[in-house]
Amino acid sequence: NAGVTQTPKFQVLKTGQSMTLQCAQDMNHNSMYWYRQDPGMGLRLIYYSASEGTTDKGEVPNGYNVSRLNKREFSLRLESAAPSQTSVYFCASSWLNYGYTFGSGTRLTVV
Amino acid sequence: QKEVEQDPGPLSVPEGAIVSLNCTYSNSAFQYFMWYRQYSRKGPELLMYTYSSGNKEDGRFTAQVDKSSKYISLFIRDSQPSDSATYLCAMSLNQAGTALIFGKGTTLSVSS
Q1: What is the pLDDT of residues B21-57, one digit of tens each?
Q2: Which residues of A touch B (CB under 8 A)?
Q3: Which of A13, A17, A84, B1 has the greatest number of CB atoms lying within 10 Å of its CB?
Q4: What's the mean per-residue pLDDT of chain A?
Q5: Distance from CA of B83 to the nearest CA of A (A)
Q6: Residues A61-106: tens digit of each pLDDT
């Protein structure tokens, strides 16, 4: 059982470049989430999808877009990367709010 | 005021000590409370889950929720070096439809 799989694990982007972070879960969870984690800031919610076909903004959505491709996959897109988006990005999934399962994270550096 | 406040530490204790980790929150509507453990360069993993007020025990770990004071705690008995990690509290209004709100995490170091 893979749980939640995030790709890539590491990425370096130049300012203005775009990229998509991929996330897939194999636990048949309805809900999926994207968080960013920065030193001293904790985990901050970017976007979430309570169920297939729905997405909602979280605390820090500016500069990001998401797509819930199907029940398994939830992608996060940076259209024009900025240095302020340097962070560790975590995808998570859950059945209701009971026990999120997190991926291992994507470490993104924007130069 | 942030919805969830958590002292970031770091907290350093000797092996065998009792550790107390705490969070306060401002929204009295929170119903579900969790503690996550995050090892360095890993994703968080669920440690404890509590609904409403009361205590819950699992091995060396005890979670307490005091809704009247808007205060939650995690106690670790007989702490081990393997407990060295960042501990994040999290809470939500309901079981579905809204995402968890996390504290910033407390970094714990247990020395042998």
Answers
A1: 999 999 998 989 999 999 999 999 999 988 888 899 9
A2: 4, 30-31, 33, 35, 40-45, 48, 50, 58, 90, 92, 96-105
A3: A13
A4: 94
A5: 19
A6: 999 999 999 999 999 999 999 999 999 999 999 987 667 899 999 9
Residues 6+ apart with CB under 8 A from A35: A43, A44, A45, A46, A58, A89, A90, A91, A92, B102
Residue A14 in tokens: 């130049």
pLDDT score of A97: 64
CA distance B111 to chain A (A): 23
The whole-angstrom separation of Cα A106 and Cα A8 is: 6
Residue B96 structure tokens = 């579905």
Is residue A85 left, alpha or beta, with left meaning phi > 0 and alpha meaning psi from -120 to 50?
Answer: alpha
